Amino acid sequence: MFKRLFLDHPRTVNETYFEHQRAAFFYGSTLLVAGLACIVHGLVPALCTTSGSRRVNKLSHHMGERKRRAAEELVSI
């Protein structure tokens, strides 16, 4: 049960539990900040005009790079 809950998924992306936790916290906190920027923009359209979309685009690029590296590591094994 422990293995299934905490270890199986991180291994599918070639990470340890703590590496995966760090990545998830990074994505989650970045998305929270982007969401807050979007809310501020919704209230005052002149503020945070590109903050939310810029952060989401950076996350998308970062996630694509992580997936590419993980795939390369699996191929080289």
Task: Explain the overall architecture.
With 77 residues, this protein is mainly α. The model has no long low-confidence stretch (mean pLDDT 91). Helix content is 82%, strand content 0%. It is elongated.
Give the helix/strand class. Answer: mainly alpha
| Low-pLDDT residue spans | none
**What portion of residues is helical?**
over 70%
Largest sheet: none
Number of contiguous helices: 4
Name the shape in a single word: elongated
Please provide the count of β strands.
0
N- and C-termini, Cα separation: 27 Å
Mean pLDDT: 91
Order of SSEs: HHHH
Instruction: Return Rg in Å.
Output: 16 Å
Report the β-strand fraction as a percent range. under 5%
Write a short abstract of this structure.
The chain has helices spanning 2-6, 8-12, 17-43, 51-76. The protein is built from four helices and no strands. This is Capsule biosynthesis protein.
Layout of SSEs?
Blueprint lengths: L1 H5 L1 H5 L4 H27 L7 H26 L1
Helix pairs in contact: 3-4
Record keyword descriptors for this entry.
single chain, 77 residues, mainly alpha, 4 helices
